[in-house]
Amino acid sequence: MRLPFAHLNLRRNPFGELDESERAALAVVDVDAVAARLRAGARVQFVGDHGRGKTTHLLALRARLPEARYCRRDRGQPLPDAPIVLVDEADAVPRRACALGVHVPFEGVETISLPPLTSARLAAICERRIEHVRRGPGAVPRVGNVDELIARFRDDLRAIEGHLYEVFQQWPSAS
Amino acid sequence: MAKCELTITIDKPDRTVAPGERITGIVQVRADADVPCNGLTVTREWSTHGKGNRCTGGSETLTLFKGAWSADEAVTYEWAFDVPAGPVTYHGHFLNVDWYIRARADVPWAIDAKAEEEFIVVPGRAEMQLGPEHKAPDAAKPGQASPGCAFAVGMVFLLVGLAIFIVGLVVLNQQTCGGLITLVFGFVFGLIGGAVAYGAIRNTLAQRTLGAVDVGFSSRAVRKGDALGVSAKFTPRAAADVTRVTARLIGRERVISGSGTNKTTHTHGLHEQTVEVSGATRLVPGQPVELTASLPVPVNAAPTFAASENYLEWLVTVHFDLPGRPDWEQDYPIDVVPFDR
Known about the structure:
The complex is a heterodimer. In chain A, 35% of the residues lie in helices and 14% in strands. By secondary structure, chain A is an alpha/beta fold. Chain A has 2 domains: 6-21 and 116-169, no CATH class; 30-112, P-loop containing nucleotide triphosphate hydrolases (Rossmann fold, 3-Layer(aba) Sandwich), CATH 3.40.50.300. The radius of gyration of chain A is 18 Å and the shape is elongated. Chain A starts with 19 loop residues before the first helix and ends in a 6-residue tail after the last helix. By secondary structure, chain B is of the alpha+beta class. Chain B has 2 helices and 20 strands. Chain B has helices at 147-173, 177-210; strands at 4-10, 16-17, 22-31, 35-50, 56-69, 74-82, 90-91, 95-106, 113-121, 214-217, 221-222, 227-234, 240-242, 244-257, 264-278, 281-283, 289-296, 305-307, 310-321, 328-336. In chain B, strands 2, 4, 5, 7, 8 and 9 form a 6-stranded mixed β-sheet that branches. In chain B, strands 11, 14, 15, 18, 19 and 20 form a 6-stranded mixed β-sheet that branches. In chain B, strands 1-3-6 form a 3-stranded antiparallel β-sheet, with no helix packed on it. In chain B, strand 18 and strand 19 (310-321) form a beta hairpin. In chain B, helix 1 packs antiparallel against helix 2. Chain B is flat. The two termini of chain B are 53 Å apart. The model of chain B has no long low-confidence stretch (mean pLDDT 90). The chains are: A alpha/beta, B alpha+beta. Chain A binds chain B through residues 1, 3-4, 11-13, 16-19, 50, 72-75, 89, 165, 169, and chain B through 15-16, 49-54, 89, 91, 93, 96, 98, 118, 120, 122, 257, 259-262.
């Protein structure tokens, strides 16, 4: 038996499921301005369908703000006791500084636009995911057709990840 | 910022070990400045990776060092762990199970230095663990949810769907567009409910013809390459024709990704083979019947594994095809256990 994905100089499929800390570390998002607004007491929301980056933004904020706590309401997790709360799948607006991930916007809460999925951003996401699982020095596979992926899947990053997972599962050995 | 780099080396070149053996190696630390360390730990554990939510288990941790490293110092620390009795390494499509040696240096006021290397656990001759959520298949109970509960849920859906359908008819009589939508919605809702309710009581209905069906196996824990004996005993209550009786061995990966409204189950088939237990036959009331068959377990069968949201499962589906009557079908989970042949 061989080590997993050793034939691609990788440790595992780069587009497999990530844990929360990996998602935050690999996120290609800019949350500096939002983090500053939360520290000033703002209440903001990220609005979008599945796979558009709401959770990734909240996890990136958690990595940026040590005083913030993250919870998922759809898992029944209670609102944490923290000065800043990051609430995924929010069902209500907390009365303190918060960032919410929602499908339908709440009234009276500032909506932060999720960044569009450009070719450059998708290429950066793919690059980061591949480098994260690099096994050692040397060549690793690259995703070269990012424009085609955006044309096919539009801004659904999760669908793109699902497609690339299958591509890497079937990627032939160099030998 | 002071930085240190960790490198793990596993002594055995092929990194392949079996339960009962020891896995040994070193962690090398290189510091580019004076670095205080609250603890250099090395952990042996397994993790899943692939399409499902990640899970980890079998952790054992050693603390190798606490203190400070000097600039440009390279220090090595030896470690050794017993190889536990599973789960074995597995590389599939949606599911992978790998064993790791993970090193971590807790450096105050800095990002911890980390490194990891895989090693491969192959089956040994002793009994092996099949994952933290594994339960031995209960020989007395088939692997299915309570039919009474499913029937109740199905009936609720059926009645609600029927009510929506009637409302749709009323609204349609008033010649509004919404009536047709309500009608179709109610029909589909009720149809799903009816199918669930029927599925829940189908075997009970079939047993009015077949009598109680007692399915048995030569063993519920088999090894790759084995032949799995299946038997079905029953005493028919009514005269009836049987088109055929089959037993199907199914192996599959089933993993779950995401959570809440974003939860998705991914299934990948590994094996499916159907054998005929009986061809067309006529049942005579009160005359006991015993049918037997042998299902070959593939020589490359992957072992059963069950951990949180990551499963490699095997099951046998026994099916009685009764023309003009409800069919009888039941799933029985079995274990494929890893074994060094």
